[in-house]
Specification:
By secondary structure, the protein is mostly helical. The chain has one domain. About 60% of the residues lie in helices and about 0% in strands. The N and C termini lie far apart (about 55 Å).
């Protein structure tokens, strides 16, 4: 689908799909609410590289086993 939009404006404009725009707003909200987000992400990356993580399916199986006891 292709649309042509003609807008006369002195300022540059950016047109993005609404879904993408809403996602960008959510990302901004998350990042602005946590001043340490970059440090936390770096720490998480280091832990992942070390192998300190659990695969989602394995975690669910472990939880289910714990519930059946």
């Amino acid at each position: 689908m292709k649309h042509i939009i003609n807008i006369k404006s002195e300022k540059p404009l950016v047109v993005v799909p609404l879904e993408k725009y809403e996602g960008m707003l959510e990302t901004i909200e998350i990042l602005s609410g946590n001043n340490n987000i970059l440090d936390e992400l770096k720490n998480e990356k280091r832990e992942f590289i070390k192998g300190n993580y659990v695969i989602h399916e394995k975690l669910n199986r472990t939880r289910k086993k714990g519930l059946s006891k």
